[in-house]
Amino acid sequence: MSAPNKSYDPVEVEALKPEEIERMRDEALAAFEAAADLDALTHAKTAHTGPTSPLSLANREIGALPPQAKAEAGKRVGMARGAVNKALAARLAVLEAERDERVLVEEAVDVTLPYDRVPAGARHPLTTFMERVADVFVAMGYEVAEGPEVEAEWFNFDALNFVPDHPARQMQDTFFVQGADGKKTDESGVVLRTHTSPVQARALLERREPPVYVVCPGRVYRTDELDATHTPVFHQIELLAVDEGLTMADLKGTLDHMVQALFGEGVKTRLRPHYFPFTEPSAEMDMVCYVCRGESVGNPDRPCRTCGSEGWIELGGCGMVNPKVLTACGVDPEKYSGFAFGFGIERMLMFRHNVEDMRDMVEGDVRFTRPFGMEI
Ligand SMILES: [Zn+2]
């Protein structure tokens, strides 16, 4: 950079001569044009428009000129810089367009290529249906409770008021893991749980003080052969409510709400007297057939496959929790009452979707599960 001029002499300010400015401009334009890619252009940009580029340095010289020469020199440099910036922008646009086009070609995906991926799996309809049932109760404020599948005989039977010689404990119904024979009354064996009811006892013992509102979905085991209507491993969902002042009316209302949530508006339930050791009174519960709504009864012209033209579908068992069960679980039956019910998920899935053979649910054939959709 030259020292400030005291007396104006354009010859001394070499960098600001018109031909010199033109040369700098043309060099810049040539450099941009020669840039073959965006990297090269970035370098050319720094060299010709950066703070140490010839035009920037010349621009600084303007300050050293006497006032009468500043305007003309400023205009000259400004025009040159304008032309350089314009050329730079134009070249940048060209190179960017070329790059985009190249990326499109290089990264193109051929969507017509053969497809050989393994199809994504989905959850089994039993699992998704069991969760859907549990969700009905979670929406009412119930908590989901789970227990072990290998269960103490005490939880599976004794706590639930099964007497020691109750037939359900026999080898032909129950898988004993330990203590199958020579059972003494003071010794509790270990079984694969035969129902989800032991989770009730666990929930009461763990929580100690009611109110207790739990829903227990889970896998259970019985010594049945696998055939069209039986399987040694199946699923149940069990409900338990213990609070002050609960009655059969609460049980009935809860059942009606559940079947309406699962099968549609207006579906009703009915209770038929029955016996279970852990409830008193006990009942079998049926629901109105959600397909014919009872209209197939005595109407041979309109038979119903879902209910066998009976008008009702058997759902499962229920009742008021036996005070002996409350006592065994440390709950005062004078103060609290409760209701419980449970049913088999397989059975419900069968009549809800017209599944005729239970084996379809366990054999893992995707032709069975695929129509249920892809709930993940
Ligand atoms: Zn029907």
Automatic annotation (TrEMBL):
Pfam families in the cross-refs: Phe_tRNA-synt_N, tRNA-synt_2d
Cellular compartment(s): Cytoplasm
EC number(s) reported in the record: 6.1.1.20
Main localization (coarse): cytoplasm
GO terms assigned for molecular function: ATP binding; magnesium ion binding; phenylalanine-tRNA ligase activity; tRNA binding
Cofactor(s) essential for the protein: Mg(2+)
Highest taxon listed in the record's lineage: Bacteria
InterPro entries on file: aa-tRNA-synth_II, aa-tRNA-synth_II/BPL/LPL, Phe-tRNA-synth_IIc_asu, Phe-tRNA_ligase_II_N, Phe_tRNA_ligase_alpha1_bac, Phenylalanyl-tRNA_Synthase, tRNA-bd_arm
GO BP annotations listed: phenylalanyl-tRNA aminoacylation
Keyword Membrane among record annotations: no
NCBIfam families in UniProt: pheS (TIGR00468)
Record note on quaternary structure: Tetramer of two alpha and two beta subunits.
Name of the protein: Phenylalanine--tRNA ligase alpha subunit
Species the sequence originates in: Streptomyces finlayi
